[in-house]
């Protein structure tokens, strides 16, 4: 069961990074000024992850069910985010509001994951081993995503 949780967090964290990058890319294509768009999207996403981590302490019972719900919400909201943003740009005047709203929602949900996972698995591992394992997977995930992105975006 714990291996499934770790794999789930690895995949959803990768998806969270991808959703963040898609939002930044889409904003830079549609609004221009890519440095500003990526900076504000990434900053908003990291800010929201901190809020999610803080809010995780208020979740008390049924942690596994709440964890699964959060995972599903990240996939659902993030998966439709680019479509929603394209439609918002074409048909409304509130593209920026929706862009940062989606980035904040996805960031909060991703920020809730790690603290919940640590609380769910607290009784199964010693705390230091649990922290080391979760951080190791998160850092490995980040390295894999960065290497993959660098290889795909390299000039030919």
Report on this model:
Helix content is 86%, strand content 0%. With 156 residues, the chain is mostly helical. It has one domain. Helix 1 runs antiparallel to helix 4 (95-120) and helix 3 (63-91) runs antiparallel to helix 4. The longest helix is centred in the first third of the chain and has 30 residues, at 2-31. The protein is elongated. It starts with a helix and ends with a helix. The model has no long low-confidence stretch (mean pLDDT 79).
Give me the number of helical elements.
Answer: 5
Average pLDDT works out at 79
Number of strands: 0
Describe the largest sheet.
Answer: none
Span between termini: 43 Å
Using only C-alpha atoms, the radius of gyration works out to: 17 Å
Shape: elongated
- Structural class given helices, strands, pairing? mainly alpha
Order of helices and strands: HHHHH
Number of domains: 1
- Estimated share of beta-strand residues: under 5%
Low-confidence runs of at least 5 consecutive residues: none
Q: Helical amount among residues, as a percent range?
A: over 70%
């Amino acid at each position: 069961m714990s291996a499934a949780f770790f794999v789930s967090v690895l995949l959803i964290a990768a998806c969270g990074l991808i959703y963040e990058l898609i939002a930044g890319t889409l904003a830079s294509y549609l609004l221009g000024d890519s440095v500003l768009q990526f900076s504000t999207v990434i900053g908003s996403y990291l800010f929201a992850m901190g809020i999610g981590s803080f809010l995780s302490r208020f979740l008390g019972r049924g942690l596994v069910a709440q964890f699964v719900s959060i995972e599903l919400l990240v996939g659902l909201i993030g998966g439709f985010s680019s479509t929603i943003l394209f439609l918002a740009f074409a048909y409304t005047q509130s593209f920026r509001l929706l862009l940062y709203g989606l980035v904040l929602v996805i960031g909060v949900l991703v920020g809730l994951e790690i603290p919940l996972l640590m609380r769910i698995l607290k009784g199964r591992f010693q705390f230091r081993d649990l922290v080391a394992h979760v951080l190791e997977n998160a850092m490995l995930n980040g390295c894999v995503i960065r290497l993959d992105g660098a290889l795909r975006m390299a000039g030919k």
